[in-house]
Design a protein that fits this description.
Strand content: 25-35%
Helix content: 25-40%
Oligomer: single chain
Radius of gyration: 15 Å
Number of helices: 6
Mean pLDDT: 90
Structural class: alpha/beta
Largest sheet: 6 strands, mixed
Number of strands: 6
Length: about 180
Amino acid sequence: MKKEIIISGFGGQGVLSMGKILAYSGLMENKEVTWMPAYGPEQRGGTANVTVIISDTPIASPILSTYDVAIVLNQPSLDKFTPKVKAGGILIYDNNGIINPPTREDITCYSIAAMEKAAEMRNAKVFNMIVLGALLKVCPVVSTDGLHKALFKSLPERHHKLIPLNMQAVEEGMKLIGGV
């Protein structure tokens, strides 16, 4: 198994954190992992992205031009990365702020209302964990147990009290993506 994943959105949406947690989850399950963030002045407000590769075998290069899975959280990311999803791949997007939904027919597209669910949960900071839950439902590259362990590794100890809320958000994301 090898999955090449791009996660992209506006800075501040938790894109880089989502990639880091996903990468740590792979490490917790003894998988080969690469994590390559791309950010700069766009960290707050502009577009940021992270590439994560999770594999059962050694990874030759962290540099990718096409992806098995794209998670896009804004229209600029959707426009940029939809053409780069491999035929037969998966595209997951939050429907908040998407004006022109994807039209490709050779990939599976999932629209989720993660922003709405985060508002319903009264915590905008769980948005990225809702999206991560949706990913794990349609593409189980890691287990929720591995994800739970990764949260302890990747979050500062002062935030460990928030892990149950984050895991609840993952469960909500799995429900949101529907009967896959």
